Amino acid sequence: MADFWRSCGYSLLERSGDGRLIVTDDYLRAYFTRPELAPVEESCGNERALHAALLENPRLDVGERQIDAIRDPDARENYRVMLRFRTQLLAAPSLEAFYSGLFRNDIAVPPLFIDQTVQVILRGILEGDGDGLKARAAELFFRGQRASLDHGAIRLADDETIEMHATSGALGNLGKLIQEAQTPLRSVELDVLDAQTHAEYWRRDERFDTVLQLNSSHPGCAALCRVLEAWIVHFHQTPVTISPVREIPDEDWVWHVGLDAEASAILNEIYDGGEVDTARMKRIIGLYRVDFRNASDLRAELAGKPVFLGLAVTPDFRLRMKPQNLLLNLPLARRA
Predict the structure, then answer these.
(1) Enclosing domain of residue 312
(2) What is the pTM of this model?
(3) Which of 95, 125, 155 is the last residue of a domain?
(4) How far is CA 37 from CA 13, 43, 129, 266, 330, in A?
(5) Which of 158, 184, 213 is the last residue of a domain?
């Protein structure tokens, strides 16, 4: 299988004996080559000197006086943000530990850096897996999606791709369908991946221009379930089986986790006995049952019980998944 998501920096990392990702100088150096930090024609000599020094030694100690010496205020702020990020990365034993700590310690990191961290962790999780549907499903963890709910079909396209191209017609009628969430499907310039066409994903690596169908009977839903399972195993060493469900039976509903802010709000309201109107209920695009293979992995009072997951879109049909909820909100007997 060819390499994929090459720009995420996975090849620049090392792996520990337990499979965790270890930050290297080359990984740090890649951040210092980002456009926000790369010198431009107007950059002063102090900025150029600092940039060159950090490329030479990306772990270099940088004092506040060196940053203050940079003439451009935006460049000064960019360096401060990046150096705080570097400090937090290097304080953790692995990328996974850094990511987990973000939400337990309320660390301020730009959302873009968080998404990039999720992507590279998933790249490691998917190493050696040739299923393009799983890679496409994994995009939900770190890229916003736009949903189309057309005649019962639940389809997701990359929000940024739609925003950039749909209005110009570059993605055809399916792009407009996803953008407007109401027009009938008439063309396939944005291809819906399935079990037969999943390999197309690799040919279009990092174009983010394929569609994932999430209906429970579609292989795209199964692919998302497998990625969710792998994410939980990777962080918690807890084997689980995840399957789609049409509804949550009252007798089994003892714990749920929303995979995004909308799903969390809707499920919390229903669980607490509130009334949710029909239009809002229709925005739930996925319900999933999590069965823990080892009952002892759950808190004693929940041993043997399933946990339910929910996925929902906003009123404008957008989805922004929060994979950190699976780190923080599962009722585990212990935390990784």
Answers:
(1) 219-328
(2) 0.91
(3) 125
(4) 21, 10, 34, 41, 38
(5) 213
